[in-house]
Amino acid sequence: MTDHRPCVQLNTGVQMPLLGLGTYRLQGREEIYQTVDAALTAGYRAFDTAAVYRNEADIGQALCTLLPKHGLSRADVFITTKLSPKDQGWKAKDGCLRSLEQLGLDYIDLFLIHWPGTQGLDVKDKQNPENRAQSWATLEEFHAEGKFRAIGVSNYTVKHMEELLKSCTVIPAVLQVEFHPRLVQRELRELCEKSGVCFQAYSSLGTGILLSDPLVLEIAERYGKTPAQVLLRWAVQQNIPVLPKSCQPNRLQENGCLFDFELSDGDMAMLSALDCREKFCWDPSLVL
């Protein structure tokens, strides 16, 4: 990783950019090519996908074509993908190999278990914890072979994390969860900090709802920034990596301009005080 943009160092020693492009709902070879091109132009060097997004192959092809165009090599970008819930458990190895093949890569920078449950199982099924453990053992094997430079989990609760930390050989490098001023996840963040796990945010804009929050609008106006920039800056100023999503070049550029201003301690505190534990995405707390 040779980019000058701010990074966090994972517990494996790997550098992960604080800013990455989320690719959920990004579909179609042409749209993906244009979006990745615009993102690289805007300085993005991290790309977050998943097997369930069904866009790994198109993202891999776009990067293969575009990296030389931008004077970049594979080592200049950080690629994250995730294990599908349908591959949880004994199918995990096939899922891992499929992601490597779809992306067309010899290695993946960060590979996550996407969800603590298994597709097709009831959330209270006792097989869920067993499948998680089996999936993690598979990720540890790929990590040992150098095919995954770092491994982690997504959408895990405190309970899921404590279970994993008690049994794992390799400590997860990253926990990726929903995080924004209305869901500040204090307990999870404290657990991550204590355990040496990087806490990473998705849905930083609250699926767009927080862009019209009166406090966010007021702060944005005072700083001459967009509401999205304020929300993303609130996270990165706490050293929490973010993954904003957009396919519009001007929005990609705007969302990437997070490192030329700083929110005051008072504004940071007021944003954090919006916390009401409101989730805009799915709720993993029901999964056994």
From TrEMBL:
Top-level lineage group: Eukaryota
Pfam families from the UniProt entry: Aldo_ket_red (PF00248)
Record flagged with keyword Protease: no
Gene3D superfamilies, A to Z: NADP-dependent oxidoreductase domain
Positions of the record's site feature: Lowers pKa of active site Tyr: K82
CDD domains: AKR_DrGR-like
GO molecular function: oxidoreductase activity
UniProt entry keywords in alphabetical sequence: Oxidoreductase
Binding positions for substrate per the UniProt entry: H114
Domain NADP-dependent oxidoreductase: 19-274
Keyword field contains DNA damage: no
Active site, UniProt feature: Y53 (proton donor)
Protein family per UniProt: Belongs to the aldo/keto reductase family.
Name of this chain's protein: NADP-dependent oxidoreductase domain-containing protein
